[in-house]
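From the shared-data thread, chain only:
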Amino acid sequence: MKPYEVVRQIARFVDIPGIEPAQTHFGESYTNSTEWWAVKLREADSTFAWLAYSFGDVPMWALHAGVVLTETGARVGLHCHKKAEPGYCEAVKDIGQHIGPVYDSLSADEIQYNQDFSGFGPDVLREVGKRLGEVYVEARSGLIERRLINK
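Structure, as tokens:
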């Protein structure tokens, strides 16, 4: 299965009540984008085999829950771009600690809290999708509590 097909498989298992289609972002849609952050990813030779869910009206590049494929599996997490409003990254630092260790992504210029999954079998992809939905719902709740988003 090709990387973008794997990402689409994962998306089938994500359950996020109330998510709007405009909040769903597939990396493959941005491979030729001229948006500054997509250009930066291409310049860093980063993968576009990812799926991200944005929060409310916050730009996806600034703050999202997402999954990116690695050579050995997938990485699910909560990500905040270093150029985003400070309140977002502060919230991510508080909310993200239970997801996994903090990771400073130089290629994406993000602060990330990620959980790694190994393999690409059907059960792993189902678990990755389920976890991505959980991360999003938990983060959305924390962001609403902090009055950083409305819904």
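The CA atoms of residues 66 and 105 lie 14 Å apart.
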